Amino acid sequence: MPKQLNALKMSKKMAQAAISLSLLTGTVAAVLPANVAFAETQPEADTPLDKQNLKPLSVQSLEALENGVKLNLGDYQGFIRLFSEDMAKISVVKNGEAEFISPGIAKKDWKTPDFKTTETDQEYTLSTNEITVKINKSPFGVKFLDKQGNVINEDAAQGVGYENGKPYAFKKTDATENFYGFGEQSGGLNKRGKSLGMWNTDAYSYNKNTKYLYTSIPFFIGLKDKKAYGIFFDNTYRSYYEMASEKDDYYYFYANGGTLTYYFINGPEIGDVIDRYTELTGKSETPPMWSLGFHQSKWGYTPEELVNVAKTYREKKIPLDTMHFDIDYMDGYRVFTWNDQYKQALKTLKDDGFHAITINDPAVKQDENYRMYQEGSQNNYWAKNPDGSTFIGEVWPGKSAFPNFLKSDVRNWWSNNLGTLLNEGVDGIWNDMNEPAVFDGPFHTMPLDIVFEDDNGEKKTHEEYHNLYGHHETEATYNGFLKNKPNTRPFVLTRDMYAGTQRYAALWTGDNVSNWEHLQMSIPMNANVGLSGVPFVGNDIGGFAKSPGNVPTPELFARWIEVGAFLPFARDHYDNSAKSGLGSGQEPWEFGKEVEDISRKYISMRYELMPYLYNQFKESAKNGQPVQQPLVYQFQDDAKTYNIEDQFMFGDSMMLAPVVKEGQTSREVYLPAGETWVDYWTGEAYEGNQSITVNAELGTLPIFVKNNSIIPRQEVEQSTGEKKLENLILDTYLTDKASYSFYEDDAATLDYKQGEYNITDFHVDKKGSSIEFTQDKKTQNYTSDIKSYTLKLHNAEEPKKVQAADDKYAQAGSAAELTSLKSGYFFDSAEKVLYVKIPVNENHKVKIQ
Length: 849
Ligand code: MIG
Fold this sequence. Notes:
alpha+beta; globular; binds ligand MIG
């Protein structure tokens, strides 16, 4: 019977199976009739808490601990531990059961802060300099207060505990509280009123209402009365978040199993919360600079296409660093093998100066003649059925076994095998399908009772381990770099994360769709991923999958590249088979000259901003801050930012207000309060706390720069490292004073961990009618190529003279002439821009009068 007819009669479960099957043959679009909603793969139905069956706990006795208190709660015991002045860990476990620490936790040893305790009949109190934790004895409940005595967060009447094995916590809220974070979620920015779930899911062609996506980060931020706190529910089971979705005055979270373990982190700044959260779960690493360049990918490139597409980027002078090799490069989808033609393409690309990333899947083909399968079987490396036999599931290679990444031996094996890719010249690894996706498994994954044994012989079920599978595979992948290329910075891209996976990898948001909804959704989605400790995030630019009738139109692609050029991770990637027959590819030149020019303009701009972007990533590595930030991140005092999801901060100083709606040629832009904003294109300055309407024809991305900021830039190059950075441009927007702490290292190796880096602080200060530039070389352990700075002052006036001590700087006749001078200045009166060229070893302050 033809599949088309069948599909109309299919049950949901059957439809999922059909999708799985059609995915195998790469014919999804073909088998589904246009009038059937494009099916997604979602897990089985949610398991709500039985609210009639909640049993409040009460404290029967307690015992002081060196860093907190232990509570006797009858059948349960509670531990409340202070890990820092502003962070407490709350655990409620069965009597005799150990407190839980997931592999998401990076830092286990905390220095106990100074704290005081008090006790009354009703309450036990722990107080640090920053927070007070009040423990109500009967019923048991906790309340967190800041040092001014404001209640920041408090258990609700329903309390905390276990319902039929499901750990839960209810919290009070009110209508003024908003919620952010939760890792990778569809829908909008502010999660107040939403029901969210976490279960890593291969959500092919998801949409804004899809509940389960690929990655689970059970961390969120509450923002109330302009003060932020964070809660990290460290539970790897499928978990649920009802964020005032039922009533305005409470929210709750719970999981299908595991323990009630959460960390409370006080802000009050959102940035403080993320900093502490990423101290707990690990900071992202400083990426190699090439990975911040532009990436091109397609599922279905032939070896010739890989080489030719890269060449075309060069011919068309559109900057590009990296080509991605999707699953076809392998020999019959056997991981860690090569098809020779692709190996040749790799060599050609590397010789031409490109970087290359290969995809990798967890499933190992069940093939007795295949080394990986032999080794894995001999060493007992596979996930098991409950009866002890190897679990076999269908994925790309056909019937496959799945590595048990819970075991360190398996992870080491995987790390070692990465040599087969890395030693051929591959620069980065792209981990796909690590939910793990299983085409013929129930709900597109393994059955819940599949068994994973750990190093101590303890067994965990798939139900418990599922959300960690990708985390451990990604850890092994990261370590594969350290083993095979010891002094090269790893680059791993993954589809699946748990809390903490940011220590190892960047995230892309899976199989999005070429439609406007996805372009719109990408902004709040990335913002929430960023607030969840993962700065390195991106979406397939242009959309991966085709939904019926939707391939990117030239307009959609142009708008997408306007946003895409500023994504932390910037890759154009698409599914060839779903789009075949539609006439064209999805490279920037496939949409006509106008779109090609727009692509060149914005991708070039990304490369000009590379010093700024790289420094933002350095900040993330230090304090966890996102690179792509929702406005609320920097402007939590301005309530008008709380729901803005079509604007974002690209780093500290640049606000982008892209057009994400079809047919629009102008848009309203909100300028947050407390700053003055300069239109990047016109130089016009606007006070914050207002909305303005700006022109945004196709090809114009509205950008506003925060006044009093310095943005380090360079000349455009066709790939990172094409040219030495000899002249650093300091784009400066000034009314009184601006400063920037500029970090530089070799951008490729791990030598920076040995201290080989430079930090130079720049200050540009208005003093009366003159402006002074100073530099402070704070750390100098890296041999930089920088020979000069070009201070580029916007909205400037023509100076009478520019001078450093006795040295009068020469006035150049043009910007071009200035480049040939050792020092000097040029005033562009039409643009009102002053250029001052300053030698890198200028020891005196440079005075502009
Ligand atoms: O079942 O490797 O999300 O980026 O191109 C599909 C083929 C498998 C899904 C990934 C997508 C990738 C594709 N993969």
